[in-house]
Amino acid sequence: MGQRYPALNDGHVRFIEEQHLFFVATAMADGRVNLSPKGMDALRVLSPERVLWLNVTGSGNETATHLQHNPRMTLMFCAFAGKPLILRLYGQARAIHQGDAEWEALAAFLPALPGARQLFDLTVELVQSSCGMSVPFMDYQGEREQLNDWAKAKGPEGIRQYWQDRNQTSLDGVASGIVEKSRQQR
User: Fold this and answer.
1) 4-57 confidence digits (pLDDT tens)
2) Are 87 and 31 in contact (CB under 8 A)?
3) Known InterPro entries for this protein (predicted)?
């Protein structure tokens, strides 16, 4: 049933490209484990050992905060249609903020989404597949536009103020550094 691979193969990449949803998990040595659903066509496989995804502004900033203290990340993809499959990518990740030198070059791989907050660059160390036979069938109806609409209405300055007001600490009270790390250096 389950198999392990040192990197992504062509079949894995095709499966990932077909998914509308993935999950990301991170944790520090102490505190809460964060598990978040992600969508919005915001993930790209750059190579068999490298995955990049764009994180947009939300109510928390757990993933970036956790990576400052422990770079482990797991991405999980599930087949909600067709042949059953669960695919997990385990590896080391880093957050890239808008003020970082690599932002422009890496952001070019992804759609420009309002409220863009960080890019996450995952170096894949292990790929694991499992059967997924208990995952229910679900019909994809489309993307939700509320978050994009909210970010557009806020505008860039409003988003930065939101980071200041709501994204500076994790659920465990750990500083995220979002305001300092995202300053434009242009």
Assistant:
1) 999 999 999 999 999 999 999 999 999 999 999 999 999 999 999 999 999 999
2) no
3) Pyridox_Oxase_N (IPR011576), Split_barrel_FMN-bd (IPR012349)
